[in-house]
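Budget justification aside, the reviewers requested a transparent look at the raw inputs and outputs of the sequence design task funded under Objective 1. We therefore reproduce one unedited record. The lines immediately below are the structure tokens for a 413-residue chain.
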């Protein structure tokens, strides 16, 4: 991205962006191929494409939902290894003294937390907690030590919070000589004091229960039909014997899961309130929206390029398009106030805004607007363009759309 500074500088200047938080996540893009290259390789696919090569893409977004930068990694790269290099690049590019990194729990590991601290970053990252030490789990489930409450108008508790002080250890990593997988050894290389922000929500508990009930129903059907055991969504609820015997529902595991309905934990090294930590973390959903827009509206996938230079160019052009799209949406929401503006409405307005040349009378060249006045006209005003009339002359059309060409538009249609 260093070759395209305007993509970074223009949104920063126009939105008055001060990068204090970097929201990070990873996704994968598969190719209908099994040919391995520098970028393309087999790996853990987010879309469950197990028989296709892929690339891994790490994306950094700012507080406004506008992407800052991205990086491509080989398809077999672990997502744990992608975050720190890109965050370090962002920090150096913007010459930032302080940066809060926000990420999902899939990127939370001791190596990443200590690496972020080493490069001078703070973090607010979701935390896995169901496999933590017994003492910590007891503190989470303790019903008497909640500190903050958010209540509805009728006094019913909507959400409650507590903060736990946890010591994070960094263990020396060893590699198995047979599987070549790395695992933590007994030697402790360092420790770090962290705050775990624990929240409990009755609404989230109801959702967790409903999700599990659906998974149990699918697991019951899978026990009767072994062909369904491949699904990842409910396979964890089934015990498959190594020797003889039939698959069965693991009711002990399901009972253990019910204890944690409604709980969520955020890990941070900052001394901030639970409400502040939660407010920061809740913005992370926007990066998932970046991936959705990129994969659907901007057609980053399917990937119909094969060589590494073409792959690089494909994702670069898609990233530039995503930055422009997100920047436009941010400006529209800011300028149009309470009016509900969505990606779908904005893109549909752009797609349907067409003008045609009226060739009935060649002596008097005119252009006809085919769309109704509405959102596109308001969008034009926000971005410094003039709304079009039903009928426009070539000169007025050029002036209103700020077209730099000097030739008559009629000669180019």
């Amino acid at each position: 991205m260093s070759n395209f500074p305007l993509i970074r500088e223009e949104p920063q200047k126009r939105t008055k962006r001060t990068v204090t938080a970097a929201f990070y996540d990873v996704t994968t893009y598969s190719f209908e191929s099994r040919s391995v290259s520098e970028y393309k390789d087999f790996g853990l696919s987010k879309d469950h494409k197990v028989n296709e090569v892929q690339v891994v893409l790490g994306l950094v977004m700012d507080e406004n939902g506008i992407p800052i930068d991205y990086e491509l990694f080989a398809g077999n790269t672990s997502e744990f290894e992608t975050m720190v290099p890109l965050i370090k690049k962002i920090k150096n590019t913007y010459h930032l003294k302080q940066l809060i990194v926000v990420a999902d729990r899939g990127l939370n590991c001791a190596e990443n937390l200590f690496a972020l601290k080493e490069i001078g970053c703070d973090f607010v990252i979701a935390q896995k907690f169901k496999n933590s030490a017994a003492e910590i789990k007891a503190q989470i489930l303790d019903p008497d030590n909640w500190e903050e409450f958010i209540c509805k108008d009728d006094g019913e508790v909507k959400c409650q919070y507590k903060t736990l002080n946890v010591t994070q250890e960094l263990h020396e990593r060893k590699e198995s000589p047979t599987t070549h997988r790395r695992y933590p050894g007994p030697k402790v290389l360092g420790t770090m004091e962290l705050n775990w922000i624990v929240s409990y929500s009755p609404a989230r508990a109801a959702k967790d229960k409903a999700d599990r009930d659906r998974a149990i129903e699918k697991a019951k059907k899978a026990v009767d039909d072994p062909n369904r055991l491949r699904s990842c969504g409910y396979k964890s609820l089934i015990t498959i014997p190594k020797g003889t015997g039939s698959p069965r529902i693991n009711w002990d595991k399901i009972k253990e899961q019910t204890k944690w309905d409604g709980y969520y934990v955020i890990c941070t090294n900052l001394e901030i309130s639970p409400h502040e930590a939660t407010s920061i973390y809740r913005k992370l959903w926007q990066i998932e929206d970046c991936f959705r827009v990129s994969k659907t509206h901007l057609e980053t996938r399917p990937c119909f390029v094969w060589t590494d230079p073409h792959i690089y160019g494909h994702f670069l052009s898609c990233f530039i398009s995503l930055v422009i799209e997100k920047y436009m949406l941010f400006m529209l929401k800011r300028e149009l106030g309470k009016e509900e503006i969505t990606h779908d409405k904005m893109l549909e307005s752009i797609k349907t805004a067409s003008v045609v040349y009226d060739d009935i009378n060649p002596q008097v060249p005119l252009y006809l607007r085919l769309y109704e006045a509405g959102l596109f006209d308001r969008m034009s005003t926000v971005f410094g363009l003039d709304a079009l009339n039903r009928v426009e002359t070539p000169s007025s059309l050029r002036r209103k759309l700020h077209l730099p060409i000097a030739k008559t538009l009629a000669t180019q249609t």
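The first helix runs from residue 5 to 14. The chain has three domains: 5-201+262-335, 206-258, 353-412. Computational costs for records of this kind are itemized in the attached budget.
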